[in-house]
Write a structure and sequence with these properties.
Length: 184
């Protein structure tokens, strides 16, 4: 279920169709919650990923598992969308479709996604400072932070928002000093 260019090209129209459906029924946020839950479940369970991607598993078995995962409280439109993916043998694209839907939702709501890589977990105050910095950079209404820990940074943070990168890590500063010294 790894994403590549061809996969992304197929996922985009499905995510767009899901967004259109969500907008027509005024369920964009509700679908966003369902999509986040599915992505979380997929990232936690390699067994589920393998089951969904397995071409030898019958359509009925895949539908039964999806129905069990969604439970009784799931939105009927969202459930039907997933069943359509199974019928069209596109369920193996579930992860990229969900990621693309979240990207469309962020675009619709003017939410910036900031990937923050730090040596240690950020405090609430540090996360708020990152959000304020990103809002000033992007003019977004809100900021969603995706944090990752990389002990090799030594200290500081790297913030990625779209194609913009702010490298305020000690590792980055040492690299820049090294480049200046070697160029001098």
């Amino acid at each position: 279920m790894k994403s590549n260019i061809a996969t992304a090209e197929v996922a985009v129209p499905y995510a767009g169709a899901l967004m259109s459906l969500a907008q027509s029924k005024n369920l964009t946020d509700h679908f966003g919650e369902d999509v986040r839950s599915l992505l979380s479940l997929l990232s936690e369970s390699e067994q589920l990923q393998n089951f969904i991607a397995n071409p030898f598993v019958s359509v009925e078995d895949k539908k039964a598992v999806i129905n069990r995962i969604l439970g009784d409280g799931a939105n009927a439109y969202f459930r039907n969308f997933l069943m359509l993916l199974v019928d069209r043998k596109r369920i193996l694209l579930l992860e990229p479709i969900c990621q693309q839907y979240l990207a469309l939702l962020r675009q619709l709501k003017k939410i910036a996604l900031a990937e923050v890589i730090s040596a240690v977990p950020l405090t609430e105050a540090q996360q708020q400072a990152v959000k304020e910095k990103v809002i000033s950079m992007t003019n977004a209404h809100e900021v969603e932070i995706d944090t990752k820990i990389d002990r090799e940074l030594i200290g500081g943070v790297i913030i990625r928002v779209g194609s913009q990168v702010i490298d305020a890590s000690l590792r980055g500063q040492l690299r820049r000093i090294s480049l200046r010294l070697s160029g001098a």
